[in-house]
Amino acid sequence: MIPENVANLTAIYAATLSTFLFLREIWKMQPKFDISHFFTGNPEEDDVITIYNKSNRTVFIKQFSIVKNGKDVDLGNEADFYIIRIQPHDIYSIKISQYYKFSIKGEVYLALNLIGKKKPVKIRI
Questions:
Q1: How far is it, in rounded angstroms, from Cα 103 to Cα 58?
Q2: 112 vs 87: CA distance, rounded Å
Q3: 22, 29 in Cβ contact below 8 A?
Q4: Which long-range contacts does 9-17 make (Cβ < 8 Å, 24+ apart)?
Q5: Residues 94, 51 contacting (CB under 8 angstroms)
Q6: Hey, which bits of the chain come out as E strands?
């Protein structure tokens, strides 16, 4: 027979370990992104913002916007309806044409509205 103290310590250890593993799995399922940008300053070439899906699951983006100093930047695609699908460890590039270029000065964020999430994910550029 196991002493009562050892049994209680084993139960506490098992409960703590299972809670930790459960929370780690929830954390791993959260979408994670990395952003890179290429702003040329040349009106002849498009600027590019690349989104890299670092998570292990496919991510669906229903809308994106650029937020500069708390205000949305017009990218010329307001009326477009699209769903962007980014596979795990894959990239998607957003091209900004010459008419909608902006300067990168100040606080600039990429706001991604994901399917299944209420609040947008904001990533600093």
A1: 31
A2: 15
A3: no
A4: none
A5: yes
A6: 33-38, 47-53, 59-68, 71-73, 84-86, 91-96, 108-114, 121-124
Cα 82–chain centre separation? 17
pLDDT digits (tens), the chain, 125 positions: 578 888 899 999 999 999 999 999 888 888 899 999 888 777 778 888 899 999 888 999 988 888 888 888 777 666 556 789 999 999 999 888 776 776 667 788 888 989 888 898 889 88
**Lookup result for tokens 């010329």:** 76
Compute the residue count for the chain.
125
Distance of CA 107 to the CA centre of its chain: 17
- Given a contact cutoff of 8 angstroms between Cβ atoms, the answer to whether 114 and 61 are in contact is yes
